[in-house]
Design a protein that fits this description.
alpha+beta; 3-stranded antiparallel β-sheet; about 60% helix; about 15% strand; globular
């Protein structure tokens, strides 16, 4: 490792560089893409591309394939936040700032917590396992049509599971629990709802 690490140091940033370049390549024409395909459709396609990128990272067998996988993740994640912000503002036409503030709150918390969680998973298992979990969570997030209340027992094991909001007929895009105990749920689509 002492012999090979210095040689790799010069190229280890390539994955992040390709991620950033691909992210920018989608962000710059983002308004045009959103106008052409719609926020929701673009988010679903982007999430699928990001999921494929995370799966590829989990299966990565070489440095070049890893860089390619990071590029896919960059392409897939680039437009998701702008779409969320636009949809949030559209949901609250009388107070767009409040809609944007809520979207920033909802999307900001994962950005703070995820790197620490990812690092812990990588340390406990492997980097490939952590990227595989990212892909699994993205796939699960695309399919969820119910909210579940989990009751934890000793050792934080689930002892009871209660499905909630099963009659919505819409996929749930995000759930946030606030310190006062309030639970907010965001459903998908142009006619999506913000429920408390």
């Amino acid at each position: 490792l002492d012999e090979t690490a210095p040689a790799l140091a010069a190229i280890t940033g390539l994955g992040v560089a390709f991620y950033g370049m691909c992210n920018a390549a989608v962000r710059f024409p983002g308004d045009g893409l959103r106008a052409r395909f719609g926020d929701f459709n673009l988010m679903m396609a982007s999430s699928a591309v990001a999921t494929i990128g995370f799966v590829c990272l989990g299966l990565s067998y070489s440095f070049a394939f890893g860089v390619f996988s990071f590029a896919l993740v960059g392409l897939g994640t680039a437009i998701i936040s702008p779409c969320i912000y636009n949809m949030a503002a559209a949901q609250t036409p009388s107070n767009r700032a409040a809609g944007l503030s809520f979207a920033l709150l909802v999307t900001g918390v994962p950005r703070i917590a995820v790197p620490a969680i990812f690092g812990a998973l990588s340390g406990a298992f492997s980097t490939k396992a952590a990227f595989g979990l990212c892909a699994a969570l993205l796939v699960g997030a695309l399919a969820g049509q119910a909210l579940f209340r989990l009751e934890l027992g000793k050792d934080d094991k689930v002892v009871n599971e209660e499905p909630l909001l099963i009659d919505l007929g819409a996929r749930i895009r995000d759930v946030q629990v606030f310190p006062d105990g309030a639970v907010y749920v965001l459903t998908e689509g142009v006619s999506g709802k913000l429920l408390k």
